[in-house]
Structures are given as structure tokens and as C-alpha cells.
Amino acid sequence: MLELEEALQRVLSAVRPLDAEEVSIHEAAGRVTADSPVSPVNLPLFDNSAMDGYAVRAADLTRANPDHPVALRLDGKIAAGEVFQGTVEAGACVRLFTGSPLPNGANAVVAQEDTRPEASRPDQVWFLDTVKPWDNVRLQGEDVRNGAKIAEAGCRLTPGQVALLAAVGISKIKAARRPRVALLATGSELIENDQPLSPGKIYESNRLMLAALMKRACAIPKIFPLVPDTMEATQAALETALAECDAVVTSGGVSVGEYDFVKAAFEKLGGELAFWKISIKPGKPFAFGHAKGKFLFGLPGNPVSALVAFLLLVRPALARMQAATETHLPKSTGRLTEALANRGDRRHFMRVVVDDAGRVASAGMQASHHLSSLARSNGLVEVPPRTTLPAGAAVTVLRWDR
């Protein structure tokens, strides 16, 4: 039985990034960059005004104050998107607005609030305060310089980074292809949730949960029909899934029961299992293998076990397939509002609820089949074997909801 770290290392060592493809900037959020894009322009593109006001020569206003305002001749107006064709001469000013290009000859902008129009002279403006050179001016290239690196290879693009790429005129990026992942749920007791229940049957829910988590990881899930507990059905489903997708995630059928066929069926198809038991709770029966460049991730059938195993082992692999340098779950810190006790001999990843103030509490019953506590939770806290973490203890929370 492997420790989690060794199992994860084996998974990440086996998985390789998929081929890169060109992606429109409109679809780039969440994608992982395959190279390091650089800016083809300066940002700002040109010197421009940081506010509504007037472009001036700072030297003209060295003595301006509310008691002794200075009058300047108004030579024109520049709306955002327009360019002033002349030059601001000594003793003159030009009306402009936020984002307006700074006209030639001007070296500062005076805020509209620090001026007063002359009712009898519409071509004249009174200035009530001094200004320093380059005050209220956004200088060309002060944000991003032409040729500067915008993102590192292996970076998962945030909305802010997409905005920056668009602002410098980049319309496409190179990103590793999103993995297509088959989702199989095995079990003759399972039925689809739009079908009538009959004695001994239960509604299947793991595929929907896992598909949602895959989408958050920027993978493309493909939900396959339910698989009954026979070798023939399991082998046929795996064969189809491996042919159509980059990886297969199964739910159920990986333990040692009489009707657990996933591992054997995979080997019959020429697959090689790397390992199948992890020293964690929940999620101990986890199978990982590969066949002709495709991968099998066999999750337990209990919903909580499936969630935990997916987050700790499958999600990092999906990130690696996309060439991401960061493969682990995001973390936050907080303090327990109640004790968390693990009396067993395996590390227990307990479901918790953490609020905006960093208060961390158990989500409820920690049994691996309890969906209500799973639905309430938004994080996991690791509790070592035979350990009690007391109320008030500082803990690290593994998050999957952000």
C-alpha cells in the first residue's frame, strides 16, 4: 500500500503533456500556456490622461493658487480616441478626458476640479493650483514594455491575464490540448436518475460530480453509459473509452470483491497496472495504469472516496496533461472551531466547511457514503493517524471550490 506522495509521484512521472494547439483569446481563460507570450507593444500605447481635465505646460502654472488663479488660452478639445493635431504652446491648454492622448507640447494634466471656466471668455480657463511635470499622465510603456514577457509557460491563464493579452493585441495563444476523459460508473445496482427506482437499485451520482470537477480542471469529460458488473461489459466499456479518450476515470469495481472487474478487464486489454492501493482514508482502493499512451484512474465507488481520490491524484494528472507547472489543489489557512479526531492508522482527509473569516468546522458525518456532508463541504483537512487536532488549532485547508 503506497503513501500518497509516492503514488502521486508515480502518476505525475507517467503522465506527459498533450500536444499544443492554437487557442483564440476568447477561449483562453483557464487554459495552460505552452510558451511564454511577450508583448508586441508598449502599454499604455501612448502618453494619455489619467482623468478629465486639461493638458498644460507645467511651467505655466508655477504660481497658480485659489487666490491668484492663472488664465490659459483654450486651444481645443481631445475626446478619447482622437488626436490633437497641433502643439500646446506656452500660455495655452487643451481640454481632454480620461484616456485622451496627451498632445505635443504638454507635460501635465490638471484635474477639471482645479479649474474654473471664464463665462465671458469661452476660449479661456482659470487654473487654481500648480502642477508638476507628468502629473496625472499615464506614460507610454509604464505598465508593460514592448517585448516584456506577459505569462510564463505552464501558467493557467486567469481572467486578468486574458485581459492583459487582449490589451496588447494578442489574439491567439498556444496551449496544451485539453484532455478528453471518459467517465465510467460500474455497478449492477446503479440506475440513471431519470429512471424509476426498483428494489435494490440506487441512483448513480458520481459521474456528474466528477464531470463538474473535470470541467473546473479544464478537462473535457465524456459520460459513458452505466456498466453492469460483468467482465464482458466492463471490458467492452473500457475498450471503447480508451479508444475515444486520452484517459478513463472509473467509479467502482476496483476493490477485491467478487464483482470488481475493472483491474482485470484493463489488463485483458493490454493495460499495465502501476498500483492500486493508497494509504489514505477515504480512497484506499485506487487503481492507476496505462495502455498505449492512455491512462486508467480507477476510483472507489463511494462518493466521498471518489471525490478525495480524484482531487488528490486525478486532478494533478489532468493538470500535468495540460503542461501546468502547478498541479496541486489551492490551499487556505484557518482555525478549527471544533476538534477533528482520527483514530485510525491511515491519514484521514476530512471534509470541512471554511468560511470567509477562516473558521474551519467539520462538514458532518465523515463516513465515505455520506453525501449530505459532502454537499456542505468546501475543503479537506488532513488529520494524521491516531491524532486529534484540537479546537483552535491552525490548519491548512485543501480547497476545490475556487
What features would you describe in this structure?
With 402 residues, the protein is α/β, with parallel strands linked by helices. It has seven helices and 26 strands. The protein is elongated, with a radius of gyration of 31 Å. The protein starts with a helix and ends with a strand. The model has no long low-confidence stretch (mean pLDDT 95).
What does the average pLDDT come to?
95
Decide which structural class fits the backbone.
alpha/beta
Which geometry do the CA atoms define?
A: elongated
Span between N and C termini? 31 Å
- Uncertain regions spanning at least 5 consecutive residues: none
Taking strands numbered 1, 2, ... along the chain, how are they ordered across the largest sheet? 6-3-5-4-8-7
Number of helical regions? 7
- Beta-strand content: 25-35%
Largest sheet: 6 strands, mixed
Number-wise, the strands total: 26
Range of helix content: 10-25%
Cα-based radius of gyration, to the nearest Å: 31 Å
Keywords for this entry:
402 residues; 7 helices; alpha/beta; six-stranded mixed sheet; elongated
